[in-house]
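Worked Example 4.2. Consider the chain below.
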Amino acid sequence: MCAFFISERLRRISRPPGPQGNVLLGNLLPIQRDPLGFLLNSADEFGDTQYYQVGFWTVYRFTRPEHIQHILQDNHRNYDKSTIDYDILRRISGRGLISNQGESWLRQRRLMQPLFHRKRIAALSDLMVESTENVRRRWEQAAASGSVVDVSEDMTELTLDIVSRALFTFDIGQEGQEFSRSFSYVNSFFGSLDTVFAIAPWMPTPKIRRYHREMAKINQMIFAIIDQRRLRPQEGDRVDLLTLLLEARDEESGEGMSDQQIRDEVITLLIAGHETTANLMAWTWLLLAQNPAARAQLEEEVDRVLNGRLPGMDDIPNLPVAERILKEALRLYPPAWFISRNAIGDDEIGGYSIPAGSLVSASVFLAHRHPEFWPDPLKFDPDRFLPEREKNRPRYAYLPFGGGPRLCIGNTFAMVEATLILTTLVQRLRLELIPGRPVEPEPLITLNMKDHLVARVTTRQ
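Applying the procedure from the previous section yields the following structure tokens:
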């Protein structure tokens, strides 16, 4: 008996400090009420490494770069995606690239990687600008009439249009507004992490029933697109991701992918390929409106480099201010604000024991605001990303696209897209915030805005 108590005491000592929470629910209720407040307050009280309970789950949260690097890179084989948030994602995206694991994920990654090479992205840059011009024309009309624009909605529609045309060569508009409405609801429902859906997705609540209806519409449209492409395959060099998926063959068996596997990849990239960039652009417009000096610096660069013409892929290396602004927006408001993993076996991080089966969380939001690596962390300062300041910063102090083998496959695509959207619109337009409409972050699966960003458009002289 004495040995048991000594062992239990040593086990408790090996745990990091953290909030106690409720006996039954742990810290579930405060996290649901204010996730970011819980993060920030517990970090202030307990430091960089914490242990706490959330319902039935034991959570170890890490903030320091060296600890995050251990999870995502150095010992990544010990940490898989068997976590509650990825379980929910699998109900929507199946075995798509983000939620897939093991050898199946590795095969899919190798198959899809060529589509995201820089040369292929360069071939899509004109399409990105073309889609953005449609938004610019609408905003110019709003500026002329003195009306306001829903920036969040416009960026969501724009990035969805770009990803569907660029990766799958189909135009959402051809299917009408029904696809967009269904996709918007499913995306919102997924992001809200509905508790009942997480536990019992078969429950006939009104929200869950509607989710299944909208998901059925999306599946019907995607399978119809797959059928059409099988009947009329693409030829030549300009093949898209959908064609690559259809032509893929297993090296050993020679079998192709099923329509269900192809559907999983299509829906995964539609979700990941537009939601994160739409969030990045909305936060960037907000930060520029709040920081006129940075906006003026960006406008000067755009005017000097582009001289009135539309941007292209070759211009991006000459637009470092635009790049730094986007990177700083990603630092303050990273769309992927946390990364969760399941510990397969026992491990040790930072002197603390991590038992197998624990939920391990790399807090991107806190890492991006750690004062040791980001002085005055709440300040919007794009010059943090000047080369001379970046070179001495630990790699995993900044990870808007994750890290290690699971680094986001579309990181270059997203940054090129965001740069072209930003510079195309900044050439002629400015956004002014409307007084009395505060914007706050809403941490769902991605870091959204609690309310849409609505702004007034003015035309630059």
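The chain is about 55% helix and 10% strand. The CA atoms of residues 67 and 350 lie 7 Å apart. Compare this with Example 4.1 before moving on.
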